[in-house]
User: Fold these one by one.
Assistant:
Number 1:
Amino acid sequence: RTLRIGLIPGDGIGKEVIPAGRRILEALPASLGLKFEFTPLEAGFETFERTGAALPDATVEVLRSGCDGALFGAVSSPSHPVKGYSSPIVALRKKLDLYANVRPVKSVIPATATASSSSSPIKPVDMVIVRENTEDLYVKEEKTFDGPQGRVAEAVKRISERASHRIAAMAGEIALRRQNIRAAGTPSIHASPLVTITHKSNVLSQTDGLFRTTARAALAAPRFASVAVEEQIVDSMVYKLFRQPEAYDVIVAPNLYGDILSDGAAALVGSLGLVPSANVGEGFAIGEPCHGSAPDIQGQGIANPIATLRSTALMLEFLEEEAAAARIYAAVDANLAEGKLLSPDLGGTAKTDEVVEDILRRL
Amino acid sequence: RTLRIGLIPGDGIGKEVIPAGRRILEALPASLGLKFEFTPLEAGFETFERTGAALPDATVEVLRSGCDGALFGAVSSPSHPVKGYSSPIVALRKKLDLYANVRPVKSVIPATATASSSSSPIKPVDMVIVRENTEDLYVKEEKTFDGPQGRVAEAVKRISERASHRIAAMAGEIALRRQNIRAAGTPSIHASPLVTITHKSNVLSQTDGLFRTTARAALAAPRFASVAVEEQIVDSMVYKLFRQPEAYDVIVAPNLYGDILSDGAAALVGSLGLVPSANVGEGFAIGEPCHGSAPDIQGQGIANPIATLRSTALMLEFLEEEAAAARIYAAVDANLAEGKLLSPDLGGTAKTDEVVEDILRRL
Ligand SMILES: CC(C)[C@H](C(=O)O)[C@@H](O)C(=O)O
Ligand SMILES: CC(C)[C@H](C(=O)O)[C@@H](O)C(=O)O
């Protein structure tokens, strides 16, 4: 099978990590029977400055008609509002109807740690945040007007039954898939599948109320009979995320809460540089590291490539190439467990390329 | 001076902790020259079930015309939507124009800890979250309609120049006040005052953009010349909150982000049972523990009274009784630093009353 992969490095360290994704795909063992064709594509703030469009139509067209999946790096947000500029990744998610943003967050106990010490303050984490990716405040319908006491701006938060249903069903499927992997013998901190629905329906009774009741209904389907379902109000979810991260398996949330929760969960495992995501639609997936364009370290060759490598694996999972994905995850975990070649965000001194090469060796 | 204080225990453990607030006020040394008159007032889910109103008009009237301040416990959110019920504390904040929700989060190094061990994973925390308290998604303007693919609900997120300006100015004042207290010799992890403006203007360019530019403008006043100002996008703020909590002094945020951030910050200091808040308007303040009604422990007499005791002190601060407030803070800190009489949320076995009595002894 030949997979056609679009490569969208974007800005900043996006340019340094996306090549790592390409390299690991090219290095996959031939026995997996996978071939790849890569198409470089443009998007981002630099593209906007050069062409006037942060997300050129050509990029969307090629992804739509000529690709099976893609890797997206990161884009810079200008530090002051720039007329006509808006985030290309948000636009891409909507244009390709990539309705789920899937963000697994998992700790790897380093070989040097006394993993079994019960007094250890580091708690094991193995969760997936399943973030709705097309609506909520991200519809970006805003207006500004003059009120009697100064300017007033309003934004629309939109929650639909359709989007809430499909994201909750996706969370249920992911919970089942994780359970199957565990049943096949992968060690895990979770004994049985759990989906936690996050919302703020105590304040937003209609919007978040619709998310909540729709998600409940979707997860009540017979298919999900083995999946336990619970709820957490978003503020208390953030609290619990830090107090009891080991209690969570799959968390499903509207767009903005999912955005916030996934950065919070990344903090639990030590670095945003470790956390992957996939933007998933029908038969299409874009892998995207959760970190941003990191202007502070750009150009130094020290960005952590692991978020991108894991995002590459996650993309493969959603393209139903699970065996290939598993190889990448295992190679990354082996690098982390040994803990010798780590990038600076993890306390090491290795360069991006050195980390990539160490992981390729373990493939 | 006689202060007239409304007491609104609300539901659940609210009933167990609000009496502690009253006791500590009554126990303040006579040398402070303060007298208190208490008025018990009703609000909450039980009140709703009994009277049909979660926030009786009488409660609002007495607070408005017969009180200088108040203590609010907690209210239960029904686990399923109940027609006609909505949160009385959200309504109260708006009705009394208590535009600032001030939430200090501070770690006390327990006497048993090796505070100076640099390898300690516990980082010192000393921050105040200043949350806008009247608008954002809390305007609760929602509607539901039938779309072509099922039901759709929309909520309004409203950000005004006026509310953004006054909350940022409040954050600036608090930063200055904290600096004065430090200058008077109180040890602190902060060398100079800093306000961090939190928003998501990379997506919400008009609403959060207005919050951001207005807050910047308010903090550019000559009065705040000594206050450093920076910004964090809310998702990355949650990440940084957990990776580098020691870097933050005063954080100012729109209502919903402030709600989420303050629960997150509470996790940093070990328990929501420690974290106070004050709802502050012109010449009026309501102290309110950040924890909820905690139905799981209600009736057992084991709720941590410290959030309420600190909220009582915080209320006094905003009623310009800083000496009295300082006495309460010091007594609470002494209890925690000794670490002998702690409630179960902190790993101890003491009952609410035992903790209160220990703190009263130290007053
Ligand atoms: C860059 C920004 C628009 C984006 C988002 O909010 O979705 C980012 O934070 C993310 O999580 O992918
Ligand atoms: C109970 C709820 C409505 C409230 C809020 O969201 O403001 C609570 O979480 C708080 O922080 O005081």
Number 2:
Amino acid sequence: MIKSECQIRVRYDEVDKMGYLYHGNYAKYFHIGRTELLRKIGFSDNELEKQNIILPVSEMNIKFIKPVFYDEVITVVSHLKEISGVRLRFFYQIFNQNNELVNQADMSVAFVDKISRKLIRIPQNIYDIIQSKINLT
Amino acid sequence: MIKSECQIRVRYDEVDKMGYLYHGNYAKYFHIGRTELLRKIGFSDNELEKQNIILPVSEMNIKFIKPVFYDEVITVVSHLKEISGVRLRFFYQIFNQNNELVNQADMSVAFVDKISRKLIRIPQNIYDIIQSKINLT
Amino acid sequence: MIKSECQIRVRYDEVDKMGYLYHGNYAKYFHIGRTELLRKIGFSDNELEKQNIILPVSEMNIKFIKPVFYDEVITVVSHLKEISGVRLRFFYQIFNQNNELVNQADMSVAFVDKISRKLIRIPQNIYDIIQSKINLT
Amino acid sequence: MIKSECQIRVRYDEVDKMGYLYHGNYAKYFHIGRTELLRKIGFSDNELEKQNIILPVSEMNIKFIKPVFYDEVITVVSHLKEISGVRLRFFYQIFNQNNELVNQADMSVAFVDKISRKLIRIPQNIYDIIQSKINLT
């Protein structure tokens, strides 16, 4: 698995009237985690998109274990755990400041051509780098 | 199952630079679907919250089947399919204007005391109404 | 002035921990108001964008008069009050269910070429229709 | 004036289909700027809220000078420029990575009692600290 960590401070607008980080907003945090993980191994989703390769999410499963509150600094741990010909599979964990596991998710991201909107094979250079790093760890 | 339908027009701010309804925003649509379903059978999440009963999501699983675009009017079909002592389980389908299934999800919502933040039993009147309606259909 | 009204129910995710419609979210409501006003006089911002004409906001001034709460159905009244060679100027009012004015805003929207990202003159057919309707009222 | 700077990387979900940071999202960045400025001089909006003092925005004026794009790291410069008995007035500038001014805003924030929802005088200790720091600079 390829692993990456980032810290995020919960913003005022992200918290609902229960005082909880709104459940729909976790997807944004996972997105940041995924972007940083890819950046760490040398890829930029922004650059890929300029080459007409987009990475839409095709599946997302989230368990909300404990609530997260405003102004907390949480840690998003992202794992790239699987690569197929057309998809990446990520696993995420979020920890709060007391190091408690508060959220857990897995997610599939597809490689898609921006113009045709069809699935494409993962470019060979990306595939090779990810494959080698997954095996390493 | 208790079933409810609502139509939502996709807003400009909800669409990402791929031109897709952002995957994190589906949770908001399901929330609307859930609120309207509860309203239909006589309950308001807003009223419950004033009585210190909140309904946080404890689990959410989403399959993104086809992209949804700006200004489309999509139909969210919400099903309340299960009730336990402390949780409701919902199943959702989203259809686009061509009546294609574009998204499918299931979600668990817990009954929680707003002050203690602890799980509570579903109030008897709510339980009875939901139980009777689930059996009916 | 060209005028258009629409009703919006405040969503759960749009409300902050104060229990107020989050101040950043009013821009989304004004956006809906603007889109519906343009639709009413025969234009779709979605269609314009397919022709590479985009309408970014260049200025936005908002007065928050009274708070708006979850599940309220508010009325957004949009006025297109001015047209120059490259910009439209809108004025907005939001009323709550008690018909109280809760928010007031004005906003400038520019016509921009999506590719060059430069200001463009408003297409003549759009200009003529808006100009004739503004004078009428 | 009291001044504070923070850097924010533009998130994927914050960008619209034009490829621009959505105009409604600047309010969130200013909110972060304001929170960090207050933290710098010793106050936490989160702690104030626990004491039932909330800080809703009462006015917001924004000029969008240049677009901001996905993955850019922008700098939000926040200035607390005025304090009255019940309000703080902020002035903001946002600079992109080329140090170009891309956005400018001013905003009024009121002190409000969370329970009564009425304007309150700024607590003396907060008033004194801000007043002394504004005069200093």
